[in-house]
């Protein structure tokens, strides 16, 4: 009977020991990010590491709330309730009581492994690069849209049309000025010839009258 009692005690102690190890390993598992499947375990691990006893709490299904997961709990004693907020950056907060307006206080931070942190940083960098690329494409699209905007094309055509009209008007004015100069040059000689002819005609008349007057005088 003593041997049986000792053996049963060893088996029972081993079961408790391995059960405790399994629970500890479940909490100690490293995650690449916070999601609905691990928010509960992260909340339990951080709570345990910071002096709380999550084994006395019943955890309900996590609900996504944007930047964090809400994990409602109820005490196993059926007295009291609360909630955890597991943020995607690893921050864990706790609210005591079943009223959502009750304040949350910080419990602690879940520490991702270095590989997970690097992956998270790479993901953020990729996101920033994609945002920068999207902005560049958006700006380029705006530039092309401004260049191909019908109103802009119409304004450019109107400006070009006005410039062409101004050039044509200037060329016409120069042409008219040149024609006027040529006409003046042609008119001056003609005017001179006409005045000379009139003078010669007048002299001829005076000479004719003088001759007639002398003839009459001689006859008398």
From TrEMBL:
InterPro entries referenced in this protein's UniProt entry, alphabetically: LPXTG_anchor
Bilayer topology annotation: Peptidoglycan-anchor
Protein location: Secreted, Cell wall
Composition bias, Polar residues: 111-138, 180-195
Pfam families per record: Gram_pos_anchor (PF00746)
Record region (Disordered): 105-195
Keyword line: Cell wall, Membrane, Peptidoglycan-anchor, Secreted, Signal, Transmembrane, Transmembrane helix
All copies of domain Gram-positive cocci surface proteins LPxTG, residue ranges: 182-216
Biased composition (Low complexity): 139-179
Bilayer-crossing regions: 198-218
Protein name per UniProt: Gram-positive cocci surface proteins LPxTG domain-containing protein
Species per Swiss-Prot/TrEMBL record: Staphylococcus argensis
